[in-house]
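[step 3/7] fold_predict: job queued, chain A
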Amino acid sequence: PIAAMVQPLSRRRRHGGVAGRFLAVVAACGAVTKAFTLGGVPPPTLGAARSSVAPPLHLFGGGKKASGGALSNVAGVMDQFKKAQQIAKKSNELQADLAKTVLEGKSEDGLVTIKMSGQQTPLGAEIASLETFESGAALAESVTAALKDAQEKSLKEMNEKMQDLYAEFGFGGAAPAE
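[step 4/7] structure written:
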């Protein structure tokens, strides 16, 4: 008998999409309820086995608030969404600014200079004169020292700007200071 009642569901496919599936589910529920009623068996009810009413389960942030109700939650979520958009916009601006920033690192002897962006991308190198170095090892040592100096300056610049961004949005102490 249930199959005979469910067969007309295929004729309701004209609606298609979500609406068609919704109508099919509603019709199937109606057919099942009708089959139970016709067979003399009452349809099952939710909570019939329980003797008392269960307390509500506030899955998404607690029960009703005294003021504002559900709309205050929506407003809070919208505020957080706007704040996230502002942070993303400022972060993109910060990344563009860091990409344009050029920092110079120098070796201890001052013979090698490395240029690096605020995003720690090497941009160039200058060497005073190759004749001033006794060996290739001395040149490598000066280049390494200049690279380390440029990287430290770049990292410091990036951390300072990130801390400013965090402070602007009330996230104190989010980036470690060096």
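[step 5/7] annotate
The CA atoms of residues 25 and 149 lie 68 Å apart.
The chain has four helices and three strands.
exit 0
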